[in-house]
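Notebook entry, structure prediction.
Reason for the run: the old model in the group folder had no record of what sequence produced it. Starting over properly, with the input documented here first.
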Amino acid sequence: MKILLITWACDRDDVSEPRIAYLWVREIAKRHDVVLFSVSRPDRFGCVKEQFPDIPVIEWCDIRVPEKLERFRAIAKPGYFLYFRKARKLIKQLIQENTFDIIHHLNPFAWRYPSPAGGLGPPLVRGPLAGGLPTPESFRSEVHEIFHPYKFLRITDNWRKKHDRTLNISYRRTDCVLVAAPYVAELLKPLPVRRFEIEIEHGVDTFPDQESAKRPRTKQGKIQLLFVGRVIRTKGVQDAIRAVSYMETKHLVSFTIIGDGDDLKQCRILIEKLQLNETIRCRGWCDNEQVEQAYSNADIFVFPSFREPTGGVLLEAMSHGLPCVTCDYGGPAYMVSDACGLKIPPDESDEYAKRIAAGLDLLVENDELRQKMGQAALLHASLHFNWERKMTRLDAIYRSLIVKG
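New structure, fully documented this time:
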């Protein structure tokens, strides 16, 4: 198939959304004849053509902003609205010059941005879309966000769904929307979406075999608990620390926290207050090799993030054969099956920590269950989230749209 791919921020050497978009382009280009229309930061302009030398690339430069507004530019994407109309004209020209079977507008992953490619002839696929997950009601009084552009965008969300004509027309002209988890489909109501398919933005390339992923039964030494991620309040690191203090088996475990963030200082204070210095260690930021080693050494992955759109680290943990203790909300509720982890409802803070503790006690005390869940986690990740299977599902969507058209 000949496919026009549209990306906003696509960069192998960046992190988060630009890196994920790069991976999607890489995988789609392995299977199809691709033309890529992409946007780059001014300081990275030209990187997309360098990273994809074997496919036609049209690269657009995002607007320049003062350095102190870089965070604003990255989050709010003010250049998108200037880009939208000009991009539509350019896409029309590309369609006149090429016969595309599909247009796939990959990112922004946020649903708030209309696609300039709707209604131009070829079927349009949008996404995977994620984000916009509200804080659970039980935590809203505790979580006080500093002001940032997304807070304003969230305030206008409901109004825009009903009254933003450009946004509504964009979704009406989109043939299929990929959503990262079921909650995204709910968030998109009442926008006129024709068709949903669930496909998270994350994927995994390689997996250890079942035997090498098995954890030996712990006869001596301690069972290793692991958290990896940004250390901010919504990631639930404080709740995990409190959970360890409530565990009946805390003398049998060691807990490693990997990651940096605004909440790290508070977490260290809490560890000191609960006298858990001998049990819990905050390692701060670690490089990829160190994180990989931590996954290999761990027995249980603890990720109680209570406002997680998807959860790439959960996929990493499952692909290492780790049972997961996570939150039954948002992306984790979809990604982690009952066979490969324990999902804890996001009750108020203290009750949430006690439920996490009970789940951890269960896994610590039951070697057989821990092994069984770890193996199920590896199988679940390999069946549902490896790139080869993701692209096979995507091809089926493409074909169904072409036949329908």
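Summary: The first strand starts at residue 2 and ends at 8.
The old model has been moved to the deprecated folder.
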